[in-house]
Amino acid sequence: MPVTDVQHDLDSLTLTITAEFAAPVERIWQVYADPRQLEKIWGPPSHPATVVDHDLTPGGRVTYFMTGPDGEKYAGYWQITAVNEPTSFSFLDGFADSDFNPNPDLPVSENNYTFTEHNGGTRARYVGTYASVEALQQVLDMGVVEGASSAINQIDDLLA
User: Fold this and answer.
1) With a threshold of 0.90, does the pTM exceed it?
2) CA-CA to 18 of 20 to 30 Å: which in 6, 42, 53, 112?
3) Phi-psi bin for 144: left (phi > 0), alpha (psi -120 to 50), beta?
């Protein structure tokens, strides 16, 4: 399993997931830079993703929906804030309605994904920062740790 550590810190309002992959940084970058590859790993196996828009540039937007086992669709978006190919990118990650308008009733997180060379492969750090303890607790209660971990753990299969 690629995920090696998960930490949530209510004081700093962060959720940090660390993972390690037996692939170079540039290959892990491609998983996120290519919408067809991103679809294979964004969302847990029970909720596969469909990427609708994919502009991984500062100011760009990625929109997607995940489809649950019952056929219900859950939409979301990334608003890209910074890109340093192939080592990092930052974005706001939010829930959306079916037209990809932000859902103001659910938390938005500021995310920073970094990829560094480690032991001949890549160490990835996924850090999400929330606006309040309540927002972080809300996503924790929604199963974000389990969902994100199972999604990240799909990357090994994609790389094989």
Assistant:
1) yes
2) 53
3) alpha
